[in-house]
Amino acid sequence: MAEISYPTPTEAFELLLAGNRRFVAGAPEHPNQDATRRAEIAPGQRPFAVLFGCSDSRLAAEIVFDRGLGDLFVVRTAGHVMGAEVLGSIEYGVDVLECPLVVVLGHDSCGAVGAACAALEDGIAPTGYVRDVVERVTPSVLAARAAGRVKAEEILAEHVRHTVDLLLDRSRVLAGRVDAGQAAVVGLCYRLAEGGAQVVAVRGLDVTADFAS
């Protein structure tokens, strides 16, 4: 049996960036979405990246990064908040499937971030389990405001950075792979109208100034 070749963290990141550029330009290639690919990966998966993003219906990972079946191991929650199940899912992607890249994907006009801002301003929190989501986003909003970042895009970027740091702090598996150079974590902010993704946090990867702007 041939040995499976995995991309490096840098190569995996470049694959994502290239797909997003095609999507923004309106020239998607729709790779790995045919019957041949379906049959090829039926025995097992080997995605090149874990995508941890918001559940927002406007943020479909395989579409905005122009990828196909078996390319991305996707984990999504409202406001990309995390609990044990999320951490376990991400660790599965990194440790068992050997994905070299983890991406935290936030977006503008995020309902969870907006609800957290509103709860701090008027003191009225949502009911049910939505309240738990808002409470998990609130520390990011408070940190942004404490640093003088009050614009919506600044608060979003802070929340993405906070999520990246929280992942590495809570997951020894992920942190160990990043320290060993086997994986990287990147935080992106997606712009709904334009379709582009901006880099706001990088751990374990050399990213050029153009990507980080």
Report what the structure shows.
The chain has helices at residues 9-25, 35-41, 61-64, 84-96, 111-122, 130-146, 152-170, 172-179, 209-212; strands at 49-54, 72-77, 101-107, 184-190, 197-203. The protein has 213 residues and is of the alpha/beta class. The longest helix has 19 residues, at 152-170. It is globular.
In terms of DSSP E residues, the strand content is 15-25%
Largest sheet properties? 5 strands, mixed
Q: What are the segments in which pLDDT stays under 50 over at least 5 consecutive residues?
A: 209-213
Domain module tally: 1
CATH architecture: 3-Layer(aba) Sandwich
* Secondary-structure element string: HHEHEHEHHHHEEH
CATH evolutionary superfamily:
Carbonic anhydrase
Compute the average pLDDT. Answer: 93
Here the CATH topology equals Beta-carbonic Anhydrase, Chain A
Chain-wise SSE layout:
Blueprint (H helix, E strand, L loop, with lengths): L8 H17 L9 H7 L7 E6 L6 H4 L7 E6 L6 H13 L4 E7 L3 H12 L7 H17 L5 H19 L1 H8 L4 E7 L6 E7 L5 H4 L1
Parallel strand pairs: 1-2, 1-3, 3-4
Antiparallel strand pairs: 4-5
Helix pairs in contact: 5-6, 6-7
List keywords for this structure.
single chain, alpha/beta, Beta-carbonic Anhydrase, Chain A, five-stranded mixed β-sheet
Gist?
The chain has 213 residues and is an alpha/beta fold. Helix content is 47%, strand content 15%. Strands 2-1-3-4-5 form a 5-stranded mixed sheet, with helices on both faces.
